[in-house]
Design a protein that fits this description.
Elements: H1 2-19, H2 21-27, H3 32-53, H4 60-77, H5 83-95, H6 99-111, H7 120-143, H8 147-171, H9 173-180, H10 195-217, H11 221-243, H12 246-249, H13 258-269
């Protein structure tokens, strides 16, 4: 079982690095004892995203239901024949990640199975399940059993997850609409997306970042640099989105240049 578990974590690591260079760049700064557990969380989330975002089969609902059931079963038994689910379950059992955090994630994934017109309530529910609880899962790992610290940092972790997700929504507004028929922002029409819409969204994201920043500074030293690097990256994405006209966001996906990412990495490494 030790070999299988190690191999499962290795697969989660490979998946993460293959899918997201920016995320893997940040996670490289996490203490080695904790890093594999963050990859395991990402692995499960990635499978859910793939089912609802890229898989084209008519059985997407059933596939997602099977993944959810397999995850809960693995939480109970400590084993799954799916290596990515297995790695997640081992991590979840070790750090106390329970169905309280996992169920909202799958609820949000189910919301992606069919087009929705998002009200503010649905938007907040989706953000909570797709992003905030993922941040809280990571925080469980970061705090290594320190319940008081987890409770103290929870509002900031939720705000950071929400900020990252909203930045992604804004950056990917074109592909979400043209490829999947989705517009997550309440009261926003893709065809009529305006500078005023963009300004309102960015102001909301800035409030999330302001809430999150003190929590980032209070994170354990084993993970602080990694989260700070991702924070700087997403802040820069937001700055670029703010500088880009709404009509251009609908046509061009904003990216942070590699040179800027490396400057952020150097800045974090020397502790500036």
């Amino acid at each position: 079982m030790d070999l299988y578990t190690r191999t499962s974590y290795a697969l989660a690591t490979k998946l993460t690095k293959r899918y997201s260079t920016s995320f893997s760049l940040s996670t490289d700064l996490i203490h080695s004892e904790l890093r594999k557990h963050i990859f395991a969380i990402y692995g499960l989330v990635r499978i859910g995203d793939e089912i609802v975002d890229t898989y084209q089969g008519d059985d997407r609902k059933e596939q997602l239901a099977r993944l959810e059931a397999e995850t809960y079963n693995a939480l109970q038994t400590g084993f799954s024949a799916n290596p990515l689910v297995h790695a997640f379950a081992v991590t979840a059992r070790h750090y106390g990640i329970t169905k309280t955090l996992i169920q909202p994630f799958f609820k949000s994934m189910r919301m992606d199975l069919s087009p929705l017109t998002y009200t503010q309530e649905l938007y907040e529910r989706y953000i909570y399940g797709s992003a905030e609880v993922v941040g809280l899962m990571c925080l469980k790992v970061f705090c290594v059993g320190n319940t008081e610290q987890f409770v103290q940092l929870t509002p900031g972790a939720k705000a950071l997850g929400a900020a990252y997700q909203k930045v992604n929504f804004l950056r990917d507004i074109a592909s979400d609409y043209t490829q999947r028929g989705r517009v997550y922002f309440p009261g926003v029409s893709f065809q009529k997306f305006t500078q005023k819409d963009k300004a309102r969204i960015i102001a909301d994201i800035k409030r999330d970042f302001a809430t999150a920043k003190p929590a980032v500074e209070e994170l354990p030293q084993t993970v602080r640099s990694a989260v700070l690097l991702s924070f700087l990256y997403y802040e820069e994405l937001l700055r670029l989105l703010e500088a880009t006209h709404a009509k251009d966001i609908k046509k061009t996906r904003v990216r942070v240049p590699t040179s800027k990412k490396l400057r952020f990495l150097a800045k974090v490494r020397i502790g500036l």
